[in-house]
Fold this protein.
Amino acid sequence: MADIKIDKDRCKGCCLCVAECPRGNIRMAELLNDAGQPYAEIVDTDNCTGCALCCQMCPDLAIAIGPKKPAPDKAPGSV
């Protein structure tokens, strides 16, 4: 899972990231940002692979992806 952030106030609602996500993990929010535009939001952060295609496509640099988060350690004896 990647550490993905979308700046809703930079997003102009062009939907390019929605079309580009290979996992269909980005959608447009029902709410509007301060500029009155719908903005992109992540459906499931655990489903993001960190491919950064959305970042590359975003003309407003509203999406940032950090390094993948390490998986949580399993407790001894857990399956």
In short: Residues 16-20 form the longest helix (5 residues). The CA atoms of residues 18 and 32 lie 16 Å apart. Residues 3-66 form a domain with the Alpha-Beta Plaits fold (CATH 3.30.70.20).
